[in-house]
Structures are given as structure tokens and as C-alpha cells.
């Protein structure tokens, strides 16, 4: 089973595609889509759409796990994140992908047992899962190349994978 995890954003959208076999996960690809800041909103959305479409076509995920839009009361930021989330949901419809959304707190609690965990705590857990054979990477895993967007995308993909069982 393959799961594509998404941390939505217009300026930085994290993605991670994992393949689950029993209780082990292989990270097939992960990264961050960062459109140039000079692009207009429609151009950013088009770039994100095409990038995600290419990932879906290449890896053929069965499920999509999406981090819910959450902002601290900043209306404009909420609107922009909602546009990115709507784009992801559109792709789910076009590709007939089953999906589930999770709150940031649910994702952090799953990975670290603490819903208010810091990003470094999440990175440490990913390293632990890798060290203990639960998680492997097709590409080299380098801590200095990590950003919060792809870490969140990987965490939400793992959460759905564990939730689905098998």
C-alpha cells in the first residue's frame, strides 16, 4: 500500500510518499515544493498542481493523508492554506484517491506522544524509526536537509499507514 502525505502550503508544500509492507515503511520520495516568491497566486497553484500530479503519476499512491489547515487566527494565512488544501483535494477527486485529514496536534501526538512537540522532537522520532528498521529511505536520510514541511508530510503519511493497519 502506498500513501502520499501532504503538509499544505502555497510557499512551501511538503510531500512524502511511503510504501507500507506489514509494519514497515519505505520512503519512496519526499521533499518540499517551494514556488518562487515572484510568482502570482495562480502561477503558484499551477506549479504545485503540476508537481503533485507528477508525483501521483510516478508513484501511484492508494491513499492521501493531509494535514488540516491550522493557523493562529490570521485570516489571510488561513485563506492561502485553504487554497493549497483545496488543490490537494481536487487531485484526490481527479485521481480517485482515498484521503483523510489530521490536525497538527494529532500528527505530533502520534509521532512523539506529545501533541505540542517541537519539530526537533519529530525529527528525532523519524531517526529512531529509521534506526530500528521501521522506516527506510530510498534516498539518503540527512538531518541537515530536513525542513519542517517534509517532516510533517512524512509524519501524516505514517499516521495514516499505522491507522489503516495491515
TrEMBL record:
InterPro entries: RNaseH-like_sf, RNaseH_sf, X-over_junc_endoDNase_RuvC. One of its GO terms (biological process) is DNA recombination. Pfam families: RuvC. Keywords: Cytoplasm, DNA damage, DNA recombination, DNA repair, DNA-binding, Endonuclease, Hydrolase, Magnesium, Metal-binding, Nuclease. This is Uncharacterized protein. GO terms for molecular function: DNA binding; DNA endonuclease activity; hydrolase activity; metal ion binding. It comes from Thermodesulfobacterium commune DSM 2178. Belongs to the RuvC family.
